[in-house]
Design brief:
Blueprint (H helix, E strand, L loop, with lengths): L1 H42 L7 E2 L3 E2 L9 E5 L5 E7 L12 E10 L4 E3 L9 E4 L6 E7 L3 E2 L2 E2 L1 E13 L4 E14 L5 E8 L6 E9 L9 E6 L6 E4 L16 E6 L9 E10 L11 E4 L2 E2 L1 E2 L3
Parallel strand pairs: 3-12, 13-21
Antiparallel strand pairs: 1-4, 2-12, 4-8, 5-6, 5-7, 5-11, 9-10, 11-12, 13-14, 14-18, 15-17, 15-19, 16-18, 19-20
């Protein structure tokens, strides 16, 4: 009878010990799992992406310039995009911090652009999804005889040991932008009044060439002393103050209509002496600076 009582007393004790053993074992396994997961996360390489629609990866920013692009000679801005992703499903796991540097080269050496060129010097592409930034470099000094080449370098980093100043991930991309050589041409064409033989119309137009203020298009026309004599149409605002003198030709300057690279303007002249059939575009001397107009058909 006492043995049965002892057995009954021992059963709950054994059960409790088994429960403690199971809980301890599960706890140990869970602890090992948490620990091993922490170790795995510590040493596992994180996903890092940094891409651009224009720039390409380089190894040495001091000697490499990235992909070269030709831009219009009178371009005012350089625009490109950067992203923390390779596509919609693959993006960086942490914030990507980037810095931007722009240099220009007029001769053989790269130099700072100075205050005339404006751009964002850096920023952050936040983690958690695909993030893209559009970068604009404005105020580039091209056009006319200025042919500066520009190099844009973007350095991206993800993760950093603040104590040792060591970045975990780093990628450098760059591109070079070279202005095209302008054709810088000016043309002239003469149209005659075939109904009454009373006047001629001189049309002047430019391609990739503009008159820098305060200069304009200079035009000289025959005013007497030869076989042809023309009188400007003074109802035209440009010709209103052009008067005859005793010379063989009269010159004037249109400082209003040729401030853009592609411009055109027509001028009417009345025939007072000579045969209209003898008048050609070659009777008119037309130029912008050192650029003389060629005869052509618009």
């Amino acid at each position: 009878m006492d043995d049965k009582k002892n057995k009954k007393r021992k059963s709950p004790l054994i059960t409790a010990l088994l429960v403690l053993l199971i809980v301890g074992t599960v706890g140990t396994v869970a602890a090992k799992y948490v620990f091993s997961t922490q170790i795995e996360n510590l040493f596992r390489a994180k996903e890092f992406y940094f891409t651009s629609d224009t720039l390409t990866e380089i190894s040495n920013p001091e000697t490499e310039t990235g992909t070269e692009y030709t831009i219009n000679y009178d371009a005012e801005n350089i625009v490109f995009s950067i992203s923390n992703a390779a596509d919609e499903l693959r993006f960086s796991e942490d914030d990507v911090v980037y810095t931007i540097d722009v240099k220009k080269k007029s001769g053989t050496d790269w130099t700072d652009c100075g205050a005339s060129v404006s751009y964002t010097t850096g920023g952050t592409l936040a983690k958690g999804g695909v993030n893209t930034a559009q970068i604009t470099v404005s105020g580039i000094q091209t056009g006319g005889s200025v042919t500066d080449t520009y190099k844009v370098t973007v350095t991206a980093t993800m993760g950093k040991n603040l104590e040792k100043s060591i970045y975990g991930y780093k990628k450098v991309m760059a591109a070079t932008f070279v202005p095209s050589q302008p054709q810088q041409t000016i043309y002239k064409h003469l149209k005659k009044d075939t109904l009454y033989d009373a006047y001629v119309v001189l049309t002047v137009w430019t391609k990739d060439l503009k008159a820098a203020a305060p200069d304009g298009v200079d035009i000289a026309y025959p005013a007497g002393g030869g076989t042809v004599k023309l009188v400007p149409d003074n109802t035209d605002a440009i010709l209103h103050d052009v008067y005859l003198d005793a010379g063989d030709s009269i010159a004037f300057s249109d400082k209003t209509n040729f401030a853009e690279a592609y411009s055109s303007r027509s001028y009417r002249f009345f025939v007072t002496d000579g045969d209209i059939d003898d008048i050609t575009a070659e009777h008119f001397k037309v130029n912008i600076g050192s650029h003389d107009a060629s005869t052509a058909t618009p």
